Amino acid sequence: MRSSARFRLKGKLLWAAISVTALSGLLLLGLINLPQVWAQKTQAGDAPQPSFEVASIKLNKSRFPVGGRHLFGDRFNATGRTIVLIVAAYGHNGHPLSPDQVSGGPDWIKSDVFDIDAKVEDSVVEGEWKKLSFDEQVNQGMLMLRSLLADRFKLRVRHETKELSVYALVLDKKGPKFAEDNTHPEVGGISARGRGKLEATSSDFATFVSVLSMQPELGGRAVLDKTGLQGHYSFTIEWTPENLAAGGVQSADRASSSESSGPSLFTGLREQLGLRLESTRAPVDTIVIEHIERPTEN
Questions:
Q1: In angstroms, rounded to a whole number, what is the distance separating the alpha carbons of residues 19 and 29?
Q2: Does the residue 46 lie in any domain?
Q3: How many Å apart are CA 277 and CA 253, to the nearest integer?
Q4: Closest CA to 270 of 165, 168, 177, 166
Q5: Which residues, including other chains, have CB under 8 Å from residue 45's CB and lie 6 or more apart?
Q6: Residue 47 to residues 8, 242, 271, Cα–Cα distance (Å)
Q7: Cβ atoms within 10 Å of 96's Cβ, excluding its own
Q8: CB of 176 within 8 A of CB of 229?
Q9: 156 shares its domain with 174
Q10: Is 38 found in the same domain as 9?
């Protein structure tokens, strides 16, 4: 069954997610355009991180859990594998870390799915919360998620800069095959029409790059934006998804397979959008899980 998900940058929808094969589990494609100060403030360590007033955590035992996160009013709800919660909480600019940016931890963090139902303190919602934009509210919600992981999962991490294999997204010789579209940037975003189709509508390019980096064809590698594109854009890209072997990474210069009914992701980027993925290595900020425990349910 093909699924449809809508990612909005500044609208009232916080999360819409589809599941893809990565990290031997579920990777959520929920994307929020959080401000850069999110990473800066949390790394500074000069003030306590905000936390939820109360939170319920339960193991999700369903065979096919539907992952996602939602923030509405004073309520925060999330369903996801532990590793997915971690990459979201420690992402940058609202974009989750790539699989290669997390190491360490026991195997269960990639398999155990938890339901989280948390509440923001009334005094916060009725006070400072009202003064924040939606993006800033999401910012605070993500910091609260980080605090929750530290408190209930006993999560401890350290940051390390590692040189990793990444993809650099660059312009092809003739440049982009799409134009700027600043018609409705306040509700712009990326629609994922199942596997093999992405639609951008007045989307900033950083969000597209983040969604692109989560496609299984890239094998978990981060994508560095080297296009220089700064505006908002509307376009569509379609490709034929491939069933990759576990841990397999497709070559960036590989043409579409003769057995496929359409182009590969790499070919689609070049032919439809005028973009090219180049394999390279670069220093990347990563986190190492030093300690984590299964939470006590309540």
A1: 8
A2: yes
A3: 8
A4: 177
A5: none
A6: 30, 46, 49
A7: 25
A8: yes
A9: no
A10: yes
Q: 232 and 167 in one domain?
A: yes
* 3-state per-residue secondary structure call for 41-103: HHHHCCCCCCCCCEEEEEECCCCCCCCEEEEECCEEEEEEEHHHHHHHHCCECCECCCHHHEE
Structural domain includes residue 129: yes
Q: How far apart are alpha carbons 275 and 266 in whole angstroms? A: 9
Structural domains in the chain (count): 2
Q: Are residues 110 and 209 in the same domain?
A: no
Q: Does 58 share its domain with 201?
A: no
Look at residue 298 and tell me if it is in a domain: no
Query: Can you tell me which residue has the tokens 């991490």?
Result: 157
* CA 144-147-148 angle, 5° bins: 85
**Residue found under tokens 């072997």:** 245
| Domain-embedded: residue 35 | yes
Contact in structure between 116 and 15 (CB atoms under 8 Å): no
- Residue 159 in this model has a pLDDT that exceeds 90: yes
CA nearest to 289, candidates 166, 115, 116, 150: 150
16-44 tens-digit pLDDT: 332 332 332 333 333 333 232 233 333 44
Q: List, for residues 75-134, the tens digit of each pLDDT value.
A: 888 898 999 899 888 876 556 787 788 999 999 999 999 999 999 888 888 888 888 776
Residue corresponding to tokens 């990444």: 166
138 and 205 belong to one structural domain: no
Distance of alpha carbon 37 from alpha carbon 140, whole angstroms? 11
Q: Which domain holds residue 10?
A: 4-160+286-291
Please indicate, yes or no, whether residues 16 and 143 belong to a single structural domain of this protein.
yes
